[in-house]
Amino acid sequence: MSRSARVIWDDALTSYNFGPSHPLAPVRVELTMALARELGVLDKVEMAGCVPASDDELALVHERDYIEAVKRVSASGLPDFGAGLGTSDNPAFAGVHEASALIAGASLAAARSVWEGSAEHAVNIAGGLHHAMPAQASGFCVYNDPALAIAWLLKQGAGRIAYVDVDVHHGDGVQTVFYDDPRVLTISLHESPRTLFPGTGFPEETGADGTAVNVALPAGSGDSGWLRAFHAVVPPLLHEFGPEILVTQHGCDSHALDPLANLMLSVDGQRAAYAALHRLAHETAGGRWIATGGGGYELVQVVPRAWTHLIAEMAGHPIDPATPTSEDWRQFVRERTGETPPLTMTDGRNPEFRDFSGGYDPADPIDRAVMATRHAVFPLHGLDPMP
């Protein structure tokens, strides 16, 4: 389906580093790029660099006083608790502004590539920092690069943008920025806020005219239930909304091995979601697709394989799940982390699901979550909430 795909990359993107004990370790991005390179995925895309977002670009989403506070922390390395920097989630570190602005700049470069037509799809796997608020760092996130990409596109004249977030955590920062903007449809599928940070993302959070959509899934949901919920909500809303551009966030912390959350997806289920979003980009947005990374804290077994599948899917050359990882990459993993690397690109699952059109089971907690979302927002889009 793809005509062209661009990966935005600079080795300095790994400088977004909260320290050796922090879950958001930049080695996950380093290992991803190494695996994609070893499997020949990067040979099928265009590689492009990036520059840091300017203060004016950051101010499309963030308050200028906050940007100045981040700069002061960046220069001194000292905390500013009012700005959310210096907490266990968001430790202060020297250079935090420069590192964060570069990630934001990479997502802006992806947005520019797609808006100007130099690439049909573009991805910044180092991005996806969806918790950052206009005036505060939150949830490992300093500058909200997906929101900045969307705000930049709106400034260029885009009239309708859809954002789909498949991170295990609610995309609260992006929702907050565009909550009352009917030009932006935000859809987040996440673990229930009753059991996971940030405690938001209930179905009744519907925004302007139903343009905030939240699917809050019960802890323990796996491939079949997650995909059933995705297909029951996302395709009909995207087809009805008709975005000019699709922006997606691909946190892979929904995996069963992730240490910070409680969903039970496999790499195979995640790969199926990427393929579905690729199809939807072509069906609903003329193929214009901007993607970012996001969460993901199983640094060796999950993140590199998941995001290598994402890049390959965007390139139009999906990887056979049975493909072995290369021995050179495995050795690199051992040297960098001391851990045992995965041998293949699959968890050995065949992610199948029952389509919601066949009816729902009110005793099933996933079906109840789906119906809560459909009842909350489908009528606001002229859609029938019943299957």
Automatic annotation (TrEMBL):
UniProt xrefs under InterPro entries: AcuC, HDACs, His_deacetylse_dom, His_deacetylse_dom_sf, Ureohydrolase_dom_sf
Alphabetical keyword list: Acetoin catabolism
Pathway assigned in UniProt: Ketone degradation; acetoin degradation
CDD domains named among the record's database cross-references: HDAC_AcuC_like
Keyword Cytoplasm included in the entry's annotation: no
Pfam families registered for this protein in UniProt: Hist_deacetyl
Domain Histone deacetylase: 22-313
Family per record: Belongs to the histone deacetylase family.
Protein name: Acetoin utilization protein AcuC
Organism: Nonomuraea insulae
